[in-house]
């Protein structure tokens, strides 16, 4: 009976917060779980849930000698990635969601999803998961509560957020928390919806058990709802990694960088500098999301709201990202990778020989030479950030880190040069607004097609993209010491389709130039697009086996390519209609004038 569930929700609750209790009771009355479990985040709870998940087949224990504390999960094959076409922003007016989001009217969405949620947890347990996004007690930190019927979600949220009693304590009796409701339902793509209600600080997710659709603190709260709150409250919620780069002299510069999904943010955030950079150190503050607000000293301060990494596995190895390999050596949940006969995990691009035989990501026997992938291209690791050998001590600092540079980067095989610096903040916002990237497997859809992805936020902006870009422009007024803005492209290809720039650790060379520009140490060369490294006092290429013509190609600006690019940008700006910010239209006109002049 619905009223029994509501009473149970209140009886066992470790809180007296009236708003929270009333909401949990209301959701329980709708979903009708057999049990309600309030999660405390303890070690004992982790053990209990893990044992249960192993028993019900949700988790497969890995070899405790080679992967201590690690487990494999296989999702439903129809449920392997975020679903942008089933993700909705539910605002009273369609224009508030804008042309780049799917929209549903809030009452219509609540009604539609209520029908799915009605009784969906019968025979199941509802877990109440209180969590903090950001270091506990920090001024930027937000509290969320996710109700879910998935023990896999609870175990992931435990890694990805500061979850349990501490979050509940931080909330106290406040009604200021995100209300997240999730049910795996019957994992039917025809009944899958990820709905955001920014005005109600609410997220309802039904019909998926995978990643970004269900770990509601991540893309849903930290980006979609976060970006909406950021505009209301005067801060920025961004799809950005945060790193600290320390020179041999001990000077640390903090940098935030936006790249679209699966463009190597985790690799960049954990980069090991090449041997020519002895004494330099990169430390990770975050690998995916940055919340940035003006600090009392006039600088822009960033926190990483997450506590773990949900990284792409294929392609990760000791050459591309040794620190990630260490990070996932213990206490990690793997989703949709292959299983080796000795109980380890395997994926395409892992170091060493390809095993003769495996169990693939769908649980089927796999033989070396098979044309099928053994691991799904969007297979993931969920690992605590405390496992990262180069974790910055500032990752847990509630005040965050002062950002000196912001980088925008896309995956472009042509057109965009290796690196350039924006002329000023407005020009930098224009560079971010006009980002484009060739698509990958993280979003469902076609692979290898250029799509415009402003600030890498296309799938994550919780309101009208034109208003979002205007908010970026407006932030200039509240940040007296503005970060410098840069654009990079590691993915330029030669005429044979081969990447020109070696990438990975060698990106340190570009990073050093950025640091030198920020600290006002190197002169630069002006071009049509922005400032670029000078040939004489530019990038440090010592020890790099890169022919001069290759560097010339990676940094070249081809006017014919830019004319095509401007057309594609025009299509995007036209989509924004009257909400396309005037300042960006002027930047566009200036660029056209420079190209035509
Ligand atoms: O496909 C998913 O559910 C995961 S998507 C994801 C995960 C971690 C970090 N970033 C992303 C993304 O799509 O940007
Ligand atoms: Mn991401």
Percentage of β-strand residues = 15-25%
Radius of gyration: 24 Å
The averaged pLDDT comes out at: 95
- The third-level CATH topology of the largest domain is Phosphoenolpyruvate Carboxykinase, domain 3
Count of alpha and pi helical runs: 17
Low-pLDDT segments: none
- Total domain count: 3
Bound molecules: 3-[(carboxymethyl)sulfanyl]pyridine-2-carboxylic acid, manganese (II) ion
N/C terminus separation: 75 Å
Instruction: Give the overall shape, derived from the CA principal axes.
Output: globular
User: So, CATH architecture of the largest domain?
Assistant: Alpha-Beta Complex
How much helicity do the residues have? 25-40%
Number of strand elements:
31
- Describe the sheet with the most strands: 9 strands, mixed
Query: What is the CATH class name of the largest domain?
Result: Alpha Beta
Summarize the structure.
Pathway: Carbohydrate biosynthesis; gluconeogenesis. This protein is of the alpha/beta class and 597 residues long.
Model description:
Substrate binds at residues 82, 210-212, 261, 378-380. Mn(2+) binds at residues 219, 239, 288. Residues 23-231 form the Phosphoenolpyruvate carboxykinase GTP-utilising N-terminal domain. The protein is an alpha/beta fold and 597 residues long. It folds into three domains: 1-58 and 82-233, Phosphoenolpyruvate Carboxykinase, domain 1; 237-306 and 392-579, Phosphoenolpyruvate Carboxykinase, domain 3 (Alpha-Beta Complex), CATH 3.90.228.20; 309-387, Phosphoenolpyruvate Carboxykinase, domain 2. 29% of the residues lie in helices and 22% in strands. It has 17 helices and 31 strands. The strands form seven sheets. Strands 1, 4, 5, 6, 7, 8, 9, 10 and 11 form a nine-stranded mixed β-sheet that branches. Strands 12, 13, 14, 15, 16, 17, 25, 26 and 29 form a nine-stranded mixed β-sheet that branches. Helix 1 (2-11) packs antiparallel against helix 2, helix 3 runs antiparallel to helix 6 and helix 16 (559-576) packs antiparallel against helix 17. The radius of gyration is 24 Å and the shape is globular. The termini are far apart. The chain binds 3-[(carboxymethyl)sulfanyl]pyridine-2-carboxylic acid (O2Y) and manganese (II) ion. Manganese (II) ion is lined by residues 239, 261, 288.
């Amino acid at each position: 009976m619905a009223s029994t569930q509501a009473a149970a929700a209140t009886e066992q609750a470790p809180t007296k917060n009236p708003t929270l209790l009333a909401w949990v009771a209301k959701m329980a009355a709708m979903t009708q779980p057999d049990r309600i479990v309030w999660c405390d985040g303890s070690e004992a709870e982790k053990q209990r849930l893990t044992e249960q998940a192993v028993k019900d087949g949700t988790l497969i224990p890995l070899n405790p000698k080679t992967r201590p504390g690690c487990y494999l999960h296989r999702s439903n094959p129809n449920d392997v990635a975020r679903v942008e076409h089933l993700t909705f922003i539910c605002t009273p007016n369609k224009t508030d969601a804008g042309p780049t989001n799917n929209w549903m009217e809030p009452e219509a969405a609540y009604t539609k999803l209520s029908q799915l949620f009605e009784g969906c947890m019968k025979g199941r347990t509802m877990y109440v998961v209180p969590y903090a996004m950001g270091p506990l007690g920090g001024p930027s930190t937000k509290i969320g509560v996710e109700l879910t019927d998935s023990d896999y979600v609870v175990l992931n949220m435990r890694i990805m957020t500061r979850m349990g009693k501490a979050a509940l304590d931080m909330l106290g009796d406040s009604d200021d928390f995100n209300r997240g409701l999730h049910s795996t339902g019957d994992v039917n793509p025809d009944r899958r919806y990820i709905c955001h209600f920014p005005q109600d600080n609410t997220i309802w997710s039904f019909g998926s058990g995978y990643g970004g659709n269900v770990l509601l603190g991540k893309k849903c709260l930290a980006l979609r709802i976060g970006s909406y709150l950021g505009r209301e409250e005067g801060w920025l919620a961004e799809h950005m990694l945060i790193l600290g780069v320390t020179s041999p002299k001990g000077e640390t510069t903090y940098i935030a960088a936006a790249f679209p999904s699966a463009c190597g943010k985790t690799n960049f955030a954990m980069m090991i500098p090449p041997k020519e950079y002895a004494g330099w150190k990169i430390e990770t503050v975050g690998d995916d999301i940055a919340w940035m607000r003006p600090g009392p000293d006039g600088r822009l301060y960033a926190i990483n709201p997450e506590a773990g990494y949900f990284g792409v596995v294929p392609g990760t190895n000791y050459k591309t990202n040794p620190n990630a390999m260490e990070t996932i050596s213990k206490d990690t949940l793997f989703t949709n990778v292959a299983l080796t006969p000795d109980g380890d995990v395997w994926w395409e691009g892992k170091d060493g020989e390809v095993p003769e035989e495996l169990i693939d990501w769908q649980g089927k026997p796999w033989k070396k030479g098979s044309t099928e992938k053994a691991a799904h291209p969007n297979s993931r690791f969920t690992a605590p950030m405390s496992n990262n050998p180069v974790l910055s001590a500032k990752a847990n600092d509630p005040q965050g880190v002062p950002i000196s540079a912001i980088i925008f980067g896309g995956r472009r095989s042509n057109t965009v040069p290796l690196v350039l610096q924006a002329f000023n903040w407005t020009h930098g916002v224009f560079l971010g607004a006009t980002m484009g990237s060739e698509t990958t497997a993280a979003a469902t859809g076609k692979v290898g097609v250029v799509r415009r992805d402003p600030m890498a936020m296309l799938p994550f902006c919780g309101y009208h993209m034109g208003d979002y870009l205007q908010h970026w422009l407006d932030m200039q007024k509240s940040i007296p010491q503005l970060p410098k803005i840069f654009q990079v492209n590691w993915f330029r290809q030669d005429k044979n389709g081969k990447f020109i720039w070696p990438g990975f650790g060698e990106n340190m060379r570009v990073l050093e130039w950025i640091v030198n520009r920020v600290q006002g140490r190197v002169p630069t060369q002006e071009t049509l697009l922005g400032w670029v490294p000078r040939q004489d006092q530019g990038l440090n290429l010592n020890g790099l086996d890169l022919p001069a013509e290759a560097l010339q190609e990676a940094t070249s600006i081809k006017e014919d390519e830019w004319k095509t690019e401007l057309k594609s940008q025009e299509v995007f700006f036209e989509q924004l209609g009257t909400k396309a910010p005037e300042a960006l239209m002027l930047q566009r006109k200036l660029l056209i004038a420079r190209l035509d002049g």
